[in-house]
Amino acid sequence: MKLKEKYMRVALKEAFKAQKKDEVPIGAVIVCQDKIIARAHNTRQTKQISTHHAEILCIEKACKKLNSWRLEDCELYVTLEPCPMCAGAIQQARIKKVYFGAYDPKGGFFGSNFNINEVKGLNHYPEVEGGVLKEESAQMLKSFFKMKRERRISE
What we know:
The chain has five helices and five strands; from the N terminus they run H-E-E-H-H-E-H-E-E-H.
């Protein structure tokens, strides 16, 4: 198994934790020097805080762990292509590389809907690779939203 798939599987475990809490199943991990230093999942519904996306929470934990806002030697693995807010936070944290699972044609900001890396004049451009274990990531999201729709119909 490739390292990127290994770490994405950990992110998928985080996404499963979110799903068990009835949160949108998105998980993230940050790796520094081949070691996981932070992991998180969505808690937006549970906490009722709009910024509680997996990526933001993971970045905050990594910054605390390294005692620095600069995550220049770090890689982020996330199960869904980051949204505008998270893409901005990734850029601000100077994360070296982003791996994501499923593409997000409605809100993805690393190529699907918009590509923040094409904005001229920013001070940092992370490397990005999408589609890592995309089927598993997409299936978890599809199953979650199907269950939510079925639950609404039966109520």
